[in-house]
Design brief:
The complex is a heterodimer. By secondary structure, chain A is α/β, with parallel strands linked by helices. Helix content of chain A is 42%, strand content 20%. Chain A has helices at residues 2-17, 48-64, 79-87, 100-107, 141-150, 165-177, 189-198, 208-216, 263-276, 280-288, 298-318; strands at 37-41, 68-72, 93-98, 117-126, 128-133, 156-159, 182-185, 203-207, 220-225, 251-258, 291-296. In chain A, the strands form two sheets. Chain A has a six-stranded mixed sheet with strand order 2-1-3-10-4-11, sandwiched between helices. A five-stranded mixed sheet of chain A has the order 7-6-8-5-9, sandwiched between helices. Chain A starts with a helix and ends in a 9-residue tail after the last helix. Chain B is mainly alpha-helical. Chain B has 21 helices and two strands. Chain B has helices at residues 5-8, 11-14, 17-35, 41-48, 57-82, 91-102, 106-139, 144-161, 166-180, 206-223, 243-265, 271-285, 297-321, 327-338, 345-350, 352-383, 388-407, 410-428, 434-456, 461-470, 472-498, and strands at 183-184, 191-192. In chain B, strands 1-2 form a two-stranded antiparallel ribbon. In chain B, a hairpin with a 6-residue loop joins β1 and β2. Chain B starts with a helix and ends in a 7-residue tail after the last helix. Classes of the chains: A alpha/beta, B mainly alpha.
Chain lengths: 327, 505
């Protein structure tokens, strides 16, 4: 009986070990796709990239006739999975990434070079939005700019972390608009939003989905979406372009695969993606998450990445955040 | 605040097969681990956390809560039966539990411990449920300077409340604070102590450190003495205590539960201190103090009520402020973060269903403790004599797999092993490990908020200090810190002057 009891504990403990599972792969040949595809997720389960990958995999699988298998390989701020994808067959291992994958090359978060990957296609776009407290005196971007111009370095703009997407959004606006602002980093987007509502800082930039609930509760007010077109979910919020500024900050998410694949394979893959994102269930999921479906093919997406790679290397350098350079 | 929503919001989320299954498994596992001497709740939660990453956040957190509640209770079984506390917090339970067993009343001892644990836990969940939204709502208006003050309070309590030498407590806490500085600077992004490695830029992975410090270290300690405990001879009967007994103990359980919740809510103090304080208090107010230590049911009830009531208190500060009440809730913060949920006022505002589900889950966990404890006592009694050499081997492999699984990195396995050795050395030199854990968690809270506050006033220190002392919240926190600092001196002064030591437990 003592042995039996021990066995039960032992097995219970060991069964927890089984919760961690790995993926397997096999070899293939000519026609694309000729074998199953690994869809690696560089982040842990439950995050944005994880959810989108798991939503797009089923419609892709249906169109491509092979298995498209999502699996999480978190670590190194997404670079572990990116490095793995770079060593696999082009077109047969891919990953969904946002601008962060460009940034980590320079901020030292992963010793990784974006040129080891080829951009395949952009799937969705996130809307960046500039927010102030509901009772703030700022009514438009113009107001904020007027204040910042008169008081250089006085305007306090919060962000979810130094060197992150929203810090760079604010830095880009300040650079292009010729104003000096004080960046106040918080431990994540939500604390920055809460601090804006509490009046500790004047404004913050984040994505629409994250800000939505605090706007709904009447704590925060959206001044503008950092895009050239209004968001269908919030048609009343003006764009920066309408207000006479050129600060679009598209927050893209797109698929990458290993560099050096046959052009027709990559085009074929992009074609499947273009079809798959029209799947009604995927569209519904994307819209519920506060995102927008927005396709860019290999050519256009590739140019975007190349341009961003330059812009952010320079911007991070100017902000004193560039600690590594893969090139 | 609509209190009706506190339990209803999460009902649908909790009453799902997988959630209930994992909660049940968690409690069962918790009691098993708790009752085996040497396997502590902290170690179990630290080692098992990485295995919950692939679960849904709610399932993951409730599994850990199950282990937490079950484990805190489980320690009492071996305390009563073999005079060895299954977990450190059951130390006071041995004082009366084991004498009862030697008198042939093992069933009564375990039954009383179970019911007291259940009632203490239940009480603490109610306190947690009704107080944490209030605390969280209050904390929503906290500015960075106030969070800074709160963090400093947390750190100063460690040194004050820890067992043994406060110098060693300080040492451990400072080490934790230092380790927390590793990684990218939170304000300017500059890598600190990373030696150019991209592994360290995000800082030390908290869970990885915990697995080593608390899990591996424990196994190393036990490797020194792998003696198997004597077989449990006692036959257990009459486990379910009569209503009369419970009624006579109701006052004791109530008092010790209050002590437990309060001490649980204080960062750095845990179930062990709670049960020592509650036991001491009971001895003072008891009508038969001479019986305590000789097999008094009051003693068992006071110790077990308090150490289980700690769970709700520790969860209270963890959920509503993001400051862990003890090492276990510290690990839970790490687990929640992995799922993108950061505990604190924001969680209450934006993810209230989850918070409500945690309340319901904890209620259920405590009920399971009662049912499994009363029903399965005989089974758990057998488990106490499980051979350590097999058990520890299994745990060691789990620890290594777990530390790797956090972010698929062998570097982390190295970190775990390194901290295993550090933990072993710390135990050998009687340096408490809990302050290190809290330092590691509170470090970023203190640093980020201090530097953010300074950034907000353009580095003007005098203006920052003015904010600190003029805001009522931070001013009161500062006052508490000062009082705590001078309390030992004050106490000494009084005892010198009046020639007697004030009551000290």
């Amino acid at each position: 009986m003592g042995k039996k009891a021990f066995l039960i504990v032992f097995l219970t403990l060991m069964s927890f070990g089984l919760l961690v599972a790995g993926g397997a792969k096999d070899a293939g040949s000519a026609e694309y796709p000729s074998k199953n595809i690994d869809f690696l997720i560089g982040y842990s389960a439950g995050g944005g990239n994880d959810l989108i990958t798991r939503a797009i995999a089923p419609p892709m699988e249906k169109l491509m006739g092979v298995s498209v298998v999502p699996s999480n390989l978190p670590g190194g701020s997404g670079s572990i999975a990116a490095k793995k994808i770079a060593t696999e067959d082009p077109g047969y291992a891919m990953g969904l990434y946002s601008r962060s994958i460009v940034l980590i090359q320079y901020t030292g978060y992963g010793d990784f070079n974006i040129k080891t990957l080829d951009p395949v296609a952009q799937l969705v776009e996130d809307t960046a939005v500039l927010l102030v407290a509901a009772d703030s005196s700022y009514q438009s971007i113009e107001d904020i700019f007027t204040y910042a111009k008169r008081n250089p370095g006085k305007l306090k703009v919060g962000n979810g972390g130094t060197g992150g997407l929203w810090h760079l959004a604010a830095a880009l606006i300040a650079k292009e608009g010729g104003i000096k602002i004080e960046h106040i980093p918080y431990d994540g987007g939500r604390p920055a939003l809460i601090a804006t509502a509490a009046g500790e800082i004047e404004a913050t930039i984040t994505n629409l989905a994250e800000a939505e609930s605090l706007v709904a509760t009447g704590d925060l007010r959206m001044l503008a979406v950092l895009s050239s077109k209004r968001n269908p979910a919030f048609p009343d919020v003006p764009t920066v372009t309408e207000q006479g500024f050129k600060f679009e900050y598209p927050v893209w998410r797109g698929v990458f695969t290993a560099a050096g694949g046959a052009e027709e394979d990559i085009d074929a893959l992009a074609g499947y993606i273009e079809e798959a994102i029209k799947d009604p269930k995927f569209v519904e999921f994307v819209e519920n998450s506060g995102l927008q479906v927005s396709f860019k093919g290999p050519q256009e997406f590739g140019e975007l990445i190349e341009k961003e790679n330059e812009i952010y290397a320079e911007l991070l350098d100017e902000l004193g955040l560039k600690v590594s350079d893969p090139n | 605040m609509n209190f009706g929503l506190l339990y209803t919001e999460g009902l649908n989320l909790v009453f799902q097969t997988d959630v209930l299954m994992f909660l049940f498994a968690g409690v069962l596992l918790g009691i098993s681990i708790g009752c085996i001497p040497g396997l502590t709740v902290i170690m179990a939660v630290a080692v098992l956390t990485p295995f919950t990453y692939d679960l849904r956040p709610l399932v993951a957190i409730l599994t850990l809560i199950g282990i937490y509640c079950g484990g805190n209770y489980g320690g009492s079984i071996s305390a009563c039966l073999v005079n060895v506390p299954g977990t450190p917090s059951a130390i006071m339970t041995t004082l009366d539990g084991y004498p009862l067993t030697t008198k042939g009343k093992a069933g009564l001892a375990i039954g009383t411990a179970t019911v007291s644990s259940f009632l203490g836990g239940l009480f603490s969940v109610f306190v947690l449920t009704f107080l944490s939204p209030v605390v969280a709502r209050f904390a929503l208006n906290f500015i960075s300077a106030e969070y800074f003050a709160l963090g400093v309070l947390g750190i100063s309590l460690i040194a004050y409340l820890g067992k043994g030498s406060s110098t060693k407590g300080f040492l451990s806490g400072l080490l934790g604070l230092f380790l927390a500085t590793i990684g990218a600077d939170p304000m300017i992004g500059y890598p600190r102590f990373t030696f150019g490695s991209s592994h360290l830029i995000t800082g030390l992975e908290f869970i990885t450190v915990m697995i080593g410090l608390l899990g591996i270290a424990e196994i190393l300690i036990q490797a020194e003495s792998l003696n198997v405990l004597d077989k449990v001879q006692q036959t257990l009967k009459g486990i379910i205590p009569s209503f009369m007994i419970i009624r006579s103990l109701a006052g004791v359980i109530m008092r010790s539960s209050v002590v437990g919740v309060i001490i649980g809510a204080i960062p750095g103090a845990g179930g062990t201190i709670a049960s020592i304080v509650a036991y001491g208090q009971q001895k003072r107010v008891s009508r038969n103090p001479e019986q305590m230590g000789e097999g008094s049911l009051e003693g068992v009830a006071a110790a077990e009520g308090a150490n289980n009531a700690c769970t709700g208190g520790a969860m209270l500060t963890m959920l509503s402020l993001g400051i862990p009440g003890d090492a276990v809730t510290g690990v839970m913060i790490g687990a929640l973060m992995i799922h993108g949920l950061s505990p604190g006022p924001v969680l209450f505002k934006e993810n209230f269903e989850l918070v409500s589900s945690i309340f319901i889950g904890m209620l259920l966990a405590n009920m399971l403790v009662l049912v499994l404890g009363l029903g399965g006592a005989k089974f758990f009694a057998k488990m106490i004599s499980a051979p350590k050499r097999f058990l520890n081997t299994a745990i060691l492999s789990l620890a290594v797999i777990g530390s790797f699984a956090v972010q698929n990195s062998f570097f982390d396995v190295g970190v775990t092993l390194l901290f295993g050795v550090l933990g072993y050395v710390m135990v050998k030199f009687d340096i408490p490990r809990a302050p290190l854990v809290l330092g590691l968690i509170l470090g970023p809270l203190i640093e980020n908020n201090l530097r953010r506050s300074l950034l907000l006033v353009n580095g003007d220190v005098s203006q920052f200090l003015r904010t600190l002392v003029t805001r009522p919240i931070s001013a009161s926190i500062l006052l508490i810190i000062v009082l705590l600092f001078f309390y030992p001196i004050l106490k000494k002064f009084i005892s010198d002057k009046f020639g007697k030591t004030p009551e000290n437990v």
